Amino acid sequence: MSDKKKKKLTPVQQEYHSFAKAREPKRPILFNCIKAFLVGGGICLLGQGVQDFFLWNFDFTEKTAGDPTVAVMVLLSVILTVAGVYDHIAQWAGAGTAVPVTGFANSIASSAIEHRTEGFVLGVGGKMFKLAGSVIVFGVFAAFVIGLIKTTIAMLGGS
Question: How far is residue 110's CA from residue 92's CA, in Å, rounded to a whole number?
């Protein structure tokens, strides 16, 4: 807390703030970062393995293997979410499970599971994008802006 904010606190509030700060558990930031890195990297490594499987066994190119790879990773994430496993992994690993596409699938599946008792339309359909909706909106907007920039560069004679 900044010194300006401390000056506005009463002596009792300052004493309580010091008391609470002294008893607050120290967060293992470096260890949490390492866990997130390892789990996020493990998910990406698994995705690379799935892509290699499609490349070697189904004669896909790197470009065409991307779509089925994402589909398999999303399917695995949803299966692990329904089984209750993904949440335990996320609890331990933190942000490492939230960054890849599997975290996005987990957030949608979790919302759908949580609101299924409200019905398919108002519960599952209406609330499953509650958390993921902003990701979709900003992703579509970013894709639009990037497409606009790319089209403008192409029209101006760039590569």
Answer: 17
